[in-house]
Each structure stands twice: as structure tokens, then as C-alpha cells.
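Morning run. Coffee first, then this:
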Amino acid sequence: MEYSSSILIPFLLSLLLNLLSISVLMADESGCKNSIQFVNGSGFKIALFADLHYGENAWTDWGPAQDVNSDRVMSTVLDSEKPDFVIYLGDLITANNLAIQNASLYWDKAISPTRKRGIPFSTVFGNHDDAYFVWPSEWFSSFRIPQIICPNSQISDSGSPYNIMEGQKSCSFRGTTRMELMQTEISNNILSNSINGPKELWPGVSNYILRVLSSDGSKPVLFMYFFDSGGGSYPQVISSAQTEWFSKQSQIINPNGQVPEVIFWHIPSIAYSKVAPKPNSSITGKCIGSINKESVASQEAEFGIMDILTTRPSVQAIFVGHNHGLDWCCPYKTIWLCFARHTGYGGYGSWPRGARILELTENPFSLKTWIRMENGTTHSHAILTS
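And here it is:
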């Protein structure tokens, strides 16, 4: 029997859409929507950029100059290491310094060096990314108030106090929400592998899983779990709901724990304080790193996540940012607890900038790490797999 194109083409399109919907459904159920892949059996390299703080003191000459410096650090690392993937490990922006409605403009600046080089990336939130705007006291000197351009808007259905009256100009200084930042990133960047996480985990947003596939695409080599560790608009915690989510999803996608797993979030857990070298002392023993200039600024509480991670043999390491004056890795029970390296020129501290690099090998699996500095040198090389 012969079919006309007017019948066959719609049928094929409908079939394709059904197959795509089945694929998306399976991805939703497994909690693992995106995959990245080894290339030609070579190593897979990841660069971690932490605490960029774009937009800090944006109304001064100093602030924009720091963003330019941060561009330079990332460009140096990217051109030296040529990573296959980049992870932005929180505090991309200093939202509490941004008197604009759409902080996504600065978020976009932060990811631009990676995007310009065609490198895929993902992001997690830090405590400054959706923080409420803090009015600088110096603005209230008559000659120091900067011009603030506000769009035309109307009072919202909820009667938002930030909108003054219908048809007139109004300003919102509430900051840009996590959902807005993430959705703008995803919508505007084909290279983004970030995901708006499950609604049941709100107000945490950057909770998702990425799968690193073998070079032939036949199997996962690594699962990467991303957590929103809070701060800014809500407390600095990984909730019991996030802990339950990890427990459930890891059992679905990696039930026997045969595939290695690595964890990323911004604010260190309380466990980091338990293994931390004494501040301003040398990094010795089994810890590896180069700067140890402050105490660990940990999450406010723990609700079971570390208990689960340290009893799951497949978990290799946790990587965090937040503390600008720390870049060490220390063993804790069965896993490694690692800081990244302060990458951005925004934020506190004058220590030299750099980025933590991760390198995966496929067969057999291994996880290596080191720090690449802005001046091109490397240090703190370590193997994080036995």
C-alpha cells in the first residue's frame, strides 16, 4: 500500500514527538536529564570557577575593573588547560551590590569567557547570587547618588511594594530570583547544562544530575550531583528534602554504586570544619593545598547529607567554594573534601587567583586534581581515587 506525503509526514512527525516525550519522561524519572561525553577515549577535563563576584561595587571605577580582571583569570585558565567542561561553583555575582532588576546581565558576563570558547558548562548557586540589594550609605551624600534607570511597570497582581503606581516608572531592589537567573541562563545558552531542579526542593533551585558517558556513549563513567547549598534569600543549608532526593535518585540511576560519583555545592558542610588544618598553619599530613588563611565558614546545619555520602562507596569527593582563603583537599572518612580556588577578583581577599582542575580517565576510572594559577603555574596535584 502506498501513502501520500500529506499522510506520511504528519505521521512521522507525530511518532518522533512521541519518542522524544518518552525519552524526556525517562530522563525525568531517573533524575538525570543531561549527558556529557568523553571524546576519543582521552581524558576528560573540568575547570571549576568559584566566587567570581561580578557586579561587586558596580557603581564605582573599582568594581568594573575587577570584572575585567576576572575575565583575564578565566581566559588564562581556559586557554592553558583547554577543559572539556566548566563548572561555576557559586557566587557568580554579588547581587547585594546590584541596583538593577535583572542581575542576569552580570551572570551573563560571568559565563561569557567559557561560552566564547564553545565549552559546555553548568552552574550552582552561592549565597550572594540572589541576595537582596544593600543600599550603600555613601549614596545618600547628595553628590554620590548614581543614576538608576528603572523600567516602566505596573503594580503586580500581588500588590508588590516595590512597584509604585500604574503607568509610572518604578524600581525593584528585591534582587533577581534563583529561578529567574537559572531560566535566563538556560534559555539564552545552548552550551548550558544547568537544570532548574525539582519543585519539591524549592527554594533550592540548582539541584540536578549530569552523567558523563564513555567515549563510545555506551555507559556512564561518572555521575555528577549538583546541590543548592542555600544562602542569600534563604538559610545556608542542604535540606532533609535534598538528602532524600539524593538517596532516591542515586538508587535509581546507580543502584549498586558501581559508577563513581562526585558532588558539587557552594558552601562547605560542617564536616569541612572537622578536618580543616588550623587556620594560618601549614597544610600537612594527608591534606593537600597551598593556602589556609581562614577558618571554614560552613553551612548553618546538616540534615543527613554527609551521613549518606560517607556511607556510599561510589562517592569520591565533594567540591565547594565560598572560602576565598582556602584551597585544600582533606580526606574525611571515605571521601575527599575539597575547596576550589578563588577565581574572581570580586569578593574579599588578595590571594592570587586561580581555578581547580579535575581530570577524569575512563578505563580504569581515575580522578586527578590540581590548581592552575593566573600566572600559568600549577600546584597541589593529587589523585582522589584509590
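Residues 1-30, 151-169 have pLDDT under 50 and may be disordered. Good start to the day.
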